């Protein structure tokens, strides 16, 4: 369990920042609607690494603030500000899903600071508003347009839900959970904005990345297609690729394999380096 976070004020948004461990620095970010607990499920628990996680605006314990629109660029800037405040000049950047997009943006835009890259179950290639993210827009619209119970029922009986029920039940559980959030209205703004966004990185820019990279993908997942993970691994020079057990098949095994893949990558590429 993570220690209590510190609070960083960005604009008028109070953001929760988790800073654990004292070893080699890794910034690792959660997915859309996730939090530091999700990160802890995916990141190896080791004293060898100092792990910094920012709960993005309107997610986890962080406030939404009044600045709009929400974007991956905004969240990446918040993460970089947290790194500055923590005195982390250089670090490995990583994350799950949206967190992977944030990490990819940091690696591309701040190559002087990012030593390595870990992309777990990425949802974006390079274009904004990929088709696999559109269920988030569908959920957001229902939350905006209807009372929450009606909105949830409408989605649960939709064509989209029927497809996910048969092909990606773990994704469906996550989507249905968004109707239960206490901050559902403002989080609908986040979902709509992020689903229509992208990392702001081109294929050519990814081809110029010159840091050790690990991409982790899995099947039985319509939000994070295995093909997307393979595409990114092929696009980034010398990236390592690991396929793990789908969450829908065995959650415990999935997380154990993700943690093991990350631990092996960090051990192999960064264990003998001094702290930057």
TrEMBL record:
<dbReference type="InterPro" id="IPR029058">
    <property type="entry name" value="AB_hydrolase_fold"/>
</dbReference>
<dbReference type="InterPro" id="IPR000073">
    <property type="entry name" value="AB_hydrolase_1"/>
</dbReference>
<dbReference type="InterPro" id="IPR050471">
    <property type="entry name" value="AB_hydrolase"/>
</dbReference>
<feature type="domain" description="AB hydrolase-1">
    <location>
        <begin position="25"/>
        <end position="247"/>
    </location>
</feature>
<protein>
    <submittedName>
        <fullName>Pimeloyl-ACP methyl ester carboxylesterase</fullName>
    </submittedName>
</protein>
<dbReference type="Pfam" id="PF00561">
    <property type="entry name" value="Abhydrolase_1"/>
</dbReference>
């Amino acid at each position: 369990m993570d220690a209590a976070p510190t609070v960083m004020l960005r604009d008028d948004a109070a953001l929760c920042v988790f800073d654990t461990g004292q070893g080699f620095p890794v910034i690792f970010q959660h997915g859309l609607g996730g939090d530091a607990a999700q990160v802890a499920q995916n990141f190896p628990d080791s004293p060898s690494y100092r792990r910094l996680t920012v709960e993005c605006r309107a997610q986890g314990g962080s406030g939404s603030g009044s600045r709009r629109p929400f974007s991956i660029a905004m969240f990446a800037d918040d993460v970089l500000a947290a790194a500055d405040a923590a005195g982390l000049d250089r670090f490995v950047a990583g994350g799950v899903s949206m967190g992977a997009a944030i990490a990819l943006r940091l690696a591309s835009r701040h190559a002087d600071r990012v030593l390595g890259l870990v992309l777990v179950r990425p949802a974006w290639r390079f274009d904004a508003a990929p088709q696999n993210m559109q269920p988030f827009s569908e959920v957001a619209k229902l939350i905006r347009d209807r009372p929450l119970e009606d909105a949830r029922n409408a989605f649960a009986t939709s064509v989209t839900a029927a497809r996910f029920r048969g092909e990606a039940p773990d994704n469906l559980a996550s989507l249905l959970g968004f109707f239960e959030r206490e901050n559902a209205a403002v989080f609908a703004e986040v979902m709509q904005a992020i689903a229509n966004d992208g990392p702001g990185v081109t294929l050519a820019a990814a081809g110029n990345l010159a840091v050790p990279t690990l991409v982790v993908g899995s099947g039985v997942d319509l939000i994070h297609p295995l093909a997307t993970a393979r595409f990114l691994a092929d696009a980034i020079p010398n990236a390592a690729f690991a396929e793990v057990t789908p969450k829908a098949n065995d959650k415990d095994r999935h997380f154990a394999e993700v943690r093991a893949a990350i631990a092996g990558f960090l051990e192999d590429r960064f264990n003998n380096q001094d702290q930057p």
